[in-house]
Protein backbone atom coordinates (compact mmCIF):
# COMPACT_ATOMS: atom_id res chain seq x y z
CA UNK A 1 0.00 0.00 0.00
CA UNK A 2 1.29 3.44 -0.87
CA UNK A 3 0.70 5.86 1.95
CA UNK A 4 0.04 9.04 -0.01
CA UNK A 5 -2.73 11.48 0.81
CA UNK A 6 -4.85 13.41 -1.60
CA UNK A 7 -6.74 16.56 -0.75
CA UNK A 8 -9.82 17.45 -2.76
CA UNK A 9 -9.85 21.16 -2.21
CA UNK A 10 -12.38 23.93 -2.49
CA UNK A 11 -11.26 27.36 -3.60
CA UNK A 12 -10.51 29.71 -0.73
CA UNK A 13 -12.20 33.08 -1.26
CA UNK A 14 -10.32 34.89 1.45
CA UNK A 15 -7.41 33.95 3.67
CA UNK A 16 -6.37 36.30 6.48
CA UNK A 17 -3.17 38.10 5.61
CA UNK A 18 -3.33 37.09 1.95
CA UNK A 19 -5.42 39.16 -0.46
CA UNK A 20 -6.53 37.40 -3.63
CA UNK A 21 -9.24 37.44 -6.26
CA UNK A 22 -11.82 34.68 -6.49
CA UNK A 23 -11.01 32.44 -9.45
CA UNK A 24 -13.31 32.01 -12.39
CA UNK A 25 -15.93 29.25 -12.23
CA UNK A 26 -15.53 28.63 -15.95
CA UNK A 27 -12.34 27.37 -17.47
CA UNK A 28 -10.99 29.53 -20.31
CA UNK A 29 -8.56 28.02 -22.81
CA UNK A 30 -5.14 27.64 -21.29
CA UNK A 31 -3.74 29.18 -18.15
CA UNK A 32 -2.80 32.80 -17.58
CA UNK A 33 -0.01 33.24 -15.06
CA UNK A 34 -0.04 36.01 -12.48
CA UNK A 35 2.23 38.01 -14.77
CA UNK A 36 -0.20 37.68 -17.65
CA UNK A 37 -3.09 38.68 -15.38
CA UNK A 38 -1.19 41.86 -14.54
CA UNK A 39 -0.51 42.44 -18.23
CA UNK A 40 -4.22 42.14 -19.00
CA UNK A 41 -4.86 44.77 -16.32
CA UNK A 42 -2.15 47.05 -17.75
CA UNK A 43 -0.26 46.58 -14.46
CA UNK A 44 -2.82 48.74 -12.67
CA UNK A 45 -1.99 47.28 -9.24
CA UNK A 46 1.60 48.41 -9.54
CA UNK A 47 1.09 51.91 -10.92
CA UNK A 48 2.88 54.65 -9.03
CA UNK A 49 5.03 52.19 -7.07
CA UNK A 50 8.81 52.03 -6.82
CA UNK A 51 9.54 48.36 -7.33
CA UNK A 52 12.14 45.68 -6.88
CA UNK A 53 11.59 42.45 -8.78
CA UNK A 54 12.67 39.01 -7.57
CA UNK A 55 12.90 36.95 -10.72
CA UNK A 56 14.98 34.96 -13.18
CA UNK A 57 14.68 33.67 -16.74
CA UNK A 58 11.36 31.95 -15.89
CA UNK A 59 9.65 35.29 -15.19
CA UNK A 60 8.23 35.56 -18.69
CA UNK A 61 4.79 35.55 -20.29
CA UNK A 62 3.61 33.04 -22.88
CA UNK A 63 5.19 35.12 -25.64
CA UNK A 64 8.59 35.12 -23.95
CA UNK A 65 8.44 38.73 -22.73
CA UNK A 66 10.28 39.12 -19.43
CA UNK A 67 8.73 40.84 -16.45
CA UNK A 68 11.76 43.14 -16.38
CA UNK A 69 11.22 44.38 -19.94
CA UNK A 70 7.47 44.69 -19.39
CA UNK A 71 7.92 46.83 -16.29
CA UNK A 72 10.68 48.95 -17.81
CA UNK A 73 8.26 49.73 -20.60
CA UNK A 74 5.69 51.29 -18.24
CA UNK A 75 6.08 55.03 -17.69
CA UNK A 76 3.99 55.02 -14.51
CA UNK A 77 6.03 52.28 -12.78
CA UNK A 78 9.59 52.71 -11.51
CA UNK A 79 11.62 49.51 -11.52
CA UNK A 80 14.63 50.30 -9.34
CA UNK A 81 16.21 46.94 -8.48
CA UNK A 82 16.34 43.29 -9.52
CA UNK A 83 16.98 40.36 -7.21
CA UNK A 84 18.03 36.97 -8.59
CA UNK A 85 17.94 33.53 -6.89
CA UNK A 86 20.21 30.50 -7.18
CA UNK A 87 21.47 30.08 -10.78
CA UNK A 88 21.23 33.82 -11.39
CA UNK A 89 19.03 35.94 -13.60
CA UNK A 90 19.88 33.80 -16.63
CA UNK A 91 19.20 30.52 -14.82
CA UNK A 92 22.53 29.13 -16.02
CA UNK A 93 24.95 29.74 -13.16
CA UNK A 94 26.24 27.02 -10.84
CA UNK A 95 27.36 27.95 -7.36
CA UNK A 96 27.54 31.31 -5.60
CA UNK A 97 27.77 34.49 -7.69
CA UNK A 98 28.12 38.23 -7.11
CA UNK A 99 25.74 41.11 -7.68
CA UNK A 100 26.19 42.92 -10.99
CA UNK A 101 24.70 45.48 -13.34
CA UNK A 102 21.88 44.51 -15.66
CA UNK A 103 23.34 44.03 -19.13
CA UNK A 104 22.77 47.14 -21.20
CA UNK A 105 21.23 49.07 -18.30
CA UNK A 106 21.86 50.86 -15.03
CA UNK A 107 19.88 48.59 -12.71
CA UNK A 108 21.67 46.44 -10.15
CA UNK A 109 20.96 42.72 -10.15
CA UNK A 110 21.40 41.77 -6.51
CA UNK A 111 22.59 38.23 -5.90
CA UNK A 112 20.52 36.20 -3.43
CA UNK A 113 22.93 33.30 -3.78
CA UNK A 114 26.19 34.86 -2.74
CA UNK A 115 27.26 36.63 0.44
CA UNK A 116 23.62 36.80 1.50
CA UNK A 117 20.47 34.90 0.58
CA UNK A 118 18.12 37.47 2.03
CA UNK A 119 17.83 41.02 0.63
CA UNK A 120 19.67 43.53 2.78
CA UNK A 121 17.51 46.31 4.18
CA UNK A 122 19.62 49.00 2.50
CA UNK A 123 18.74 47.42 -0.85
CA UNK A 124 15.05 47.98 -0.09
CA UNK A 125 15.05 51.42 1.51
CA UNK A 126 13.85 53.30 -1.59
CA UNK A 127 11.24 50.71 -2.61
CA UNK A 128 7.49 50.54 -2.07
CA UNK A 129 7.17 46.85 -2.95
CA UNK A 130 8.87 43.65 -4.04
CA UNK A 131 7.35 41.62 -6.86
CA UNK A 132 8.18 37.90 -6.93
CA UNK A 133 7.88 35.98 -10.21
CA UNK A 134 9.79 32.67 -10.40
CA UNK A 135 8.68 29.24 -11.61
CA UNK A 136 9.00 26.54 -8.94
CA UNK A 137 8.70 22.73 -9.28
CA UNK A 138 6.76 21.76 -6.17
CA UNK A 139 9.58 20.29 -4.07
CA UNK A 140 10.64 21.54 -0.62
CA UNK A 141 14.40 21.28 -1.21
CA UNK A 142 14.28 23.20 -4.51
CA UNK A 143 15.58 26.53 -3.25
CA UNK A 144 13.24 29.06 -4.88
CA UNK A 145 10.58 28.74 -2.16
CA UNK A 146 13.17 29.51 0.53
CA UNK A 147 14.30 32.54 -1.48
CA UNK A 148 10.67 33.69 -1.53
CA UNK A 149 10.34 33.23 2.24
CA UNK A 150 13.52 35.22 2.92
CA UNK A 151 12.37 38.00 0.58
CA UNK A 152 9.02 38.11 2.36
CA UNK A 153 10.82 38.46 5.68
CA UNK A 154 12.93 41.31 4.31
CA UNK A 155 9.83 43.06 2.92
CA UNK A 156 8.09 42.78 6.29
CA UNK A 157 11.13 44.22 8.07
CA UNK A 158 11.34 47.07 5.55
CA UNK A 159 7.58 47.67 5.81
CA UNK A 160 7.02 47.39 2.07
CA UNK A 161 4.45 45.41 0.12
CA UNK A 162 5.09 41.97 -1.35
CA UNK A 163 3.41 40.69 -4.52
CA UNK A 164 3.59 37.07 -5.69
CA UNK A 165 2.75 36.52 -9.35
CA UNK A 166 1.52 32.96 -9.21
CA UNK A 167 2.54 30.14 -11.54
CA UNK A 168 1.51 26.46 -11.79
CA UNK A 169 2.93 23.67 -9.70
CA UNK A 170 4.32 21.60 -12.61
CA UNK A 171 3.78 18.22 -10.90
CA UNK A 172 0.20 18.99 -9.88
CA UNK A 173 -1.61 20.33 -6.86
CA UNK A 174 -3.30 17.20 -5.54
CA UNK A 175 -0.66 14.69 -4.42
CA UNK A 176 1.19 15.50 -1.19
CA UNK A 177 4.06 13.24 -0.15
CA UNK A 178 6.92 12.83 2.23
CA UNK A 179 7.62 13.68 5.84
CA UNK A 180 7.06 17.13 7.26
CA UNK A 181 10.48 18.63 7.99
CA UNK A 182 11.39 17.97 11.62
CA UNK A 183 12.24 20.90 13.89
CA UNK A 184 15.93 20.06 14.39
CA UNK A 185 16.58 20.37 10.63
CA UNK A 186 14.70 23.61 9.96
CA UNK A 187 16.28 26.90 8.92
CA UNK A 188 18.59 25.50 6.23
CA UNK A 189 18.36 26.83 2.68
CA UNK A 190 17.04 23.48 1.37
CA UNK A 191 15.11 22.72 4.57
CA UNK A 192 13.61 25.95 5.81
CA UNK A 193 10.02 25.53 6.98
CA UNK A 194 8.12 22.42 8.21
CA UNK A 195 6.37 21.35 5.04
CA UNK A 196 6.46 17.97 3.22
CA UNK A 197 8.89 17.20 0.40
CA UNK A 198 6.12 17.29 -2.22
CA UNK A 199 3.69 19.91 -0.96
CA UNK A 200 1.18 20.14 -3.82
CA UNK A 201 0.96 23.94 -3.64
CA UNK A 202 1.72 26.88 -5.90
CA UNK A 203 4.17 29.57 -4.86
CA UNK A 204 1.27 31.92 -4.15
CA UNK A 205 -0.33 29.38 -1.86
CA UNK A 206 2.98 28.70 -0.12
CA UNK A 207 3.45 32.43 0.39
CA UNK A 208 0.08 32.67 2.14
CA UNK A 209 0.91 29.68 4.33
CA UNK A 210 4.40 30.98 5.16
CA UNK A 211 3.06 34.41 5.98
CA UNK A 212 0.43 33.25 8.47
CA UNK A 213 1.65 29.96 9.90
CA UNK A 214 5.28 31.00 10.37
CA UNK A 215 4.64 34.57 11.44
CA UNK A 216 6.31 36.50 8.63
CA UNK A 217 3.61 39.17 8.67
CA UNK A 218 4.33 40.66 5.26
CA UNK A 219 1.85 42.90 3.47
CA UNK A 220 1.17 40.16 0.94
CA UNK A 221 -0.90 40.06 -2.22
CA UNK A 222 -1.02 37.05 -4.54
CA UNK A 223 -1.92 37.75 -8.15
CA UNK A 224 -3.74 34.53 -8.96
CA UNK A 225 -3.63 32.64 -12.21
CA UNK A 226 -6.70 32.32 -14.38
CA UNK A 227 -7.79 29.02 -15.85
CA UNK A 228 -5.66 26.95 -13.47
CA UNK A 229 -6.98 23.82 -11.79
CA UNK A 230 -5.16 21.82 -9.13
CA UNK A 231 -5.26 18.58 -11.09
CA UNK A 232 -3.30 20.11 -13.98
CA UNK A 233 0.23 19.08 -14.82
CA UNK A 234 2.41 21.65 -16.51
CA UNK A 235 1.96 20.27 -20.02
CA UNK A 236 -1.80 20.69 -19.62
CA UNK A 237 -1.59 24.44 -19.00
CA UNK A 238 -0.68 25.54 -22.58
CA UNK A 239 2.32 27.41 -21.11
CA UNK A 240 5.72 26.84 -22.75
CA UNK A 241 8.23 24.91 -20.64
CA UNK A 242 11.26 26.92 -19.53
CA UNK A 243 13.96 24.96 -17.69
CA UNK A 244 13.67 26.36 -14.13
CA UNK A 245 17.34 25.53 -13.46
CA UNK A 246 20.22 24.16 -15.52
CA UNK A 247 19.49 20.50 -14.78
CA UNK A 248 15.69 20.61 -14.52
CA UNK A 249 15.15 20.03 -18.21
CA UNK A 250 11.86 18.17 -18.43
CA UNK A 251 8.56 17.59 -16.69
CA UNK A 252 9.61 13.97 -16.17
CA UNK A 253 12.66 15.16 -14.23
CA UNK A 254 10.40 17.37 -12.11
CA UNK A 255 8.20 14.37 -11.21
CA UNK A 256 11.25 12.32 -10.21
CA UNK A 257 12.98 15.08 -8.28
CA UNK A 258 11.08 14.88 -4.94
CA UNK A 259 11.77 11.14 -4.52
CA UNK A 260 14.59 9.55 -6.51
CA UNK A 261 16.16 13.02 -6.65
CA UNK A 262 16.99 12.69 -2.95
CA UNK A 263 19.78 10.36 -4.10
CA UNK A 264 21.70 13.51 -5.06
CA UNK A 265 22.59 13.75 -1.37
CA UNK A 266 24.30 10.33 -1.57
CA UNK A 267 27.32 9.07 -3.51
CA UNK A 268 25.10 8.22 -6.47
CA UNK A 269 25.04 10.15 -9.74
CA UNK A 270 21.59 11.50 -10.57
CA UNK A 271 22.52 12.12 -14.20
CA UNK A 272 24.03 15.58 -13.87
CA UNK A 273 26.52 15.96 -16.68
CA UNK A 274 24.36 13.87 -19.02
CA UNK A 275 21.43 14.67 -21.28
CA UNK A 276 18.97 13.19 -18.77
CA UNK A 277 19.55 14.73 -15.34
CA UNK A 278 17.25 13.34 -12.64
CA UNK A 279 16.21 10.52 -14.98
CA UNK A 280 19.46 8.53 -14.67
CA UNK A 281 20.67 7.03 -11.38
CA UNK A 282 23.93 5.14 -11.03
CA UNK A 283 27.57 4.91 -10.00
CA UNK A 284 30.70 2.99 -11.04
CA UNK A 285 29.98 0.39 -8.34
CA UNK A 286 26.34 -0.23 -9.43
CA UNK A 287 25.17 -3.21 -11.50
CA UNK A 288 22.33 -1.73 -13.58
CA UNK A 289 20.76 -5.08 -14.46
CA UNK A 290 20.49 -6.08 -10.83
CA UNK A 291 19.22 -2.66 -9.68
CA UNK A 292 16.54 -2.57 -12.39
CA UNK A 293 15.42 -6.10 -11.57
CA UNK A 294 15.08 -5.29 -7.87
CA UNK A 295 13.18 -2.05 -8.44
CA UNK A 296 10.81 -3.45 -11.05
CA UNK A 297 10.11 -6.42 -8.76
CA UNK A 298 8.72 -4.11 -6.08
CA UNK A 299 5.79 -3.05 -8.23
CA UNK A 300 6.22 0.72 -8.02
CA UNK A 301 3.07 2.03 -9.65
CA UNK A 302 3.37 4.47 -12.52
CA UNK A 303 7.07 3.88 -13.23
CA UNK A 304 9.51 1.41 -14.68
CA UNK A 305 13.28 1.22 -14.41
CA UNK A 306 15.53 0.32 -17.35
CA UNK A 307 19.11 -0.81 -16.85
CA UNK A 308 21.64 1.46 -18.52
CA UNK A 309 25.17 2.80 -18.43
CA UNK A 310 26.24 6.43 -18.71
CA UNK A 311 29.35 8.56 -18.36
CA UNK A 312 28.83 12.06 -16.89
CA UNK A 313 30.89 14.77 -18.59
CA UNK A 314 30.70 16.92 -15.43
CA UNK A 315 29.63 16.76 -11.80
CA UNK A 316 29.80 13.50 -9.82
CA UNK A 317 31.80 10.68 -11.44
CA UNK A 318 32.93 12.93 -14.29
CA UNK A 319 34.43 10.79 -17.04
CA UNK A 320 33.66 7.50 -15.25
CA UNK A 321 31.40 4.78 -16.60
CA UNK A 322 28.39 4.36 -14.32
CA UNK A 323 26.04 1.41 -14.17
CA UNK A 324 22.51 2.19 -13.16
CA UNK A 325 18.93 2.72 -14.26
CA UNK A 326 16.85 5.14 -16.21
CA UNK A 327 13.59 5.94 -14.39
CA UNK A 328 10.61 6.21 -16.73
CA UNK A 329 7.31 7.64 -15.46
CA UNK A 330 4.53 5.72 -17.21
CA UNK A 331 1.48 7.00 -15.29
CA UNK A 332 1.80 10.38 -13.61
CA UNK A 333 -1.46 10.04 -11.72
CA UNK A 334 -0.40 6.80 -10.00
CA UNK A 335 3.28 7.57 -9.60
CA UNK A 336 4.34 8.45 -6.06
CA UNK A 337 7.76 10.00 -6.19
CA UNK A 338 8.64 9.61 -2.50
CA UNK A 339 7.59 5.95 -2.51
CA UNK A 340 9.84 5.35 -5.53
CA UNK A 341 12.69 7.34 -4.04
CA UNK A 342 12.58 5.53 -0.72
CA UNK A 343 12.67 2.19 -2.48
CA UNK A 344 15.62 3.33 -4.62
CA UNK A 345 17.57 4.24 -1.47
CA UNK A 346 16.53 1.04 0.28
CA UNK A 347 17.49 -1.27 -2.60
CA UNK A 348 20.86 0.41 -3.09
CA UNK A 349 21.64 0.10 0.63
CA UNK A 350 20.69 -3.58 0.52
CA UNK A 351 22.81 -4.26 -2.57
CA UNK A 352 25.79 -2.12 -1.55
CA UNK A 353 25.71 -1.79 2.26
CA UNK A 354 29.35 -0.73 2.53
CA UNK A 355 29.58 1.45 -0.56
CA UNK A 356 26.25 3.32 -0.73
CA UNK A 357 26.43 6.34 1.59
CA UNK A 358 23.19 7.72 3.09
CA UNK A 359 24.85 9.94 5.69
CA UNK A 360 23.87 13.27 4.13
CA UNK A 361 20.18 12.75 3.31
CA UNK A 362 18.69 14.23 6.50
CA UNK A 363 17.76 17.71 5.21
CA UNK A 364 16.64 16.31 1.87
CA UNK A 365 14.22 13.76 3.27
CA UNK A 366 13.40 15.80 6.37
CA UNK A 367 13.77 13.26 9.19
CA UNK A 368 17.00 12.18 10.83
CA UNK A 369 16.00 8.60 11.59
CA UNK A 370 15.26 7.64 7.99
CA UNK A 371 18.84 6.79 7.06
CA UNK A 372 19.27 4.54 10.10
CA UNK A 373 15.99 2.76 9.42
CA UNK A 374 16.93 2.16 5.80
CA UNK A 375 20.33 0.85 6.93
CA UNK A 376 18.53 -1.58 9.28
CA UNK A 377 16.50 -2.82 6.29
CA UNK A 378 13.19 -1.69 7.77
CA UNK A 379 10.20 -1.83 5.47
CA UNK A 380 9.79 1.27 3.31
CA UNK A 381 6.04 1.01 3.84
CA UNK A 382 6.52 1.10 7.63
CA UNK A 383 8.85 4.10 7.45
CA UNK A 384 6.36 5.99 5.29
CA UNK A 385 3.43 5.01 7.52
CA UNK A 386 5.18 6.50 10.54
CA UNK A 387 5.27 9.99 9.05
CA UNK A 388 1.58 10.05 8.05
CA UNK A 389 0.27 11.58 11.29
CA UNK A 390 2.36 14.71 10.84
CA UNK A 391 1.44 14.80 7.16
CA UNK A 392 -2.26 14.69 8.02
CA UNK A 393 -1.81 17.66 10.36
CA UNK A 394 -0.08 19.57 7.59
CA UNK A 395 -2.93 18.81 5.19
CA UNK A 396 -5.41 20.35 7.62
CA UNK A 397 -3.32 23.54 7.74
CA UNK A 398 -2.67 23.51 3.99
CA UNK A 399 -6.38 23.45 3.19
CA UNK A 400 -6.83 27.01 4.47
CA UNK A 401 -4.42 28.41 1.89
CA UNK A 402 -5.48 26.66 -1.33
CA UNK A 403 -6.53 29.19 -3.95
CA UNK A 404 -7.64 27.02 -6.86
CA UNK A 405 -10.31 24.38 -7.53
CA UNK A 406 -9.59 20.83 -8.50
Note down, in words, how this protein is organized.
- There is one protein chain.
- With 406 residues, this protein is α/β, with parallel strands linked by helices.
- It folds into 2 domains: 5-241 and 393-401, 3-Layer(aba) Sandwich (Rossmann fold); 251-375, Aspartate Aminotransferase, domain 1.
- Helix content is 25%, strand content 15%.
- The chain contains 12 helices and 13 strands.
- The chain has helices spanning 34-40, 67-72, 121-124, 144-158, 203-213, 251-256, 288-298, 337-351, 362-365, 369-375, 380-385, 388-398; strands at 5-6, 18-19, 50-55, 78-84, 100-101, 108-111, 129-133, 161-165, 175-176, 219-223, 280-283, 303-310, 322-329.
- The strands form 3 sheets. Strands 2-10-8-7-3-4-6-5 form an 8-stranded mixed beta sheet, sandwiched between helices. Strands 11-13-12 form a 3-stranded antiparallel beta sheet.
- Helix 4 crosses helix 5.
Figure out the total of helices.
12
Using the alpha-carbon principal axes, give the shape: globular
For the secondary structure, the number of strands is 13
CATH superfamily of the largest domain: Uncharacterised protein PF07075, DUF1343
Please describe the biggest sheet, giving its number of strands, its sense, and whether it closes into a barrel. 8 strands, mixed
Helix content: 25-40%
Give the class from helix and strand content and strand pairing.
alpha/beta
Amino acid sequence: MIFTLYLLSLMALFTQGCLHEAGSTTRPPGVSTGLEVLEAEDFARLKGLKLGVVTNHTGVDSQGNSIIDLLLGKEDIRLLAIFAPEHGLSGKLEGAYNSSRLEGGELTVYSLYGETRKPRLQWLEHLDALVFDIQDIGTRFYTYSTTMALCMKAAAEADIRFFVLDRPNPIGGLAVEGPVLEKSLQGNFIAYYPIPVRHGMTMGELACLFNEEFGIGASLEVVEMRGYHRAMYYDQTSLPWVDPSPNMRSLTAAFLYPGPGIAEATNLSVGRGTGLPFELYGAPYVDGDRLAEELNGIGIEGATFKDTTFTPVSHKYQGELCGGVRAVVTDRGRFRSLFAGMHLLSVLKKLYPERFDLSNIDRWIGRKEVKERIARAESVEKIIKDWQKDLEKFLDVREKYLLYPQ
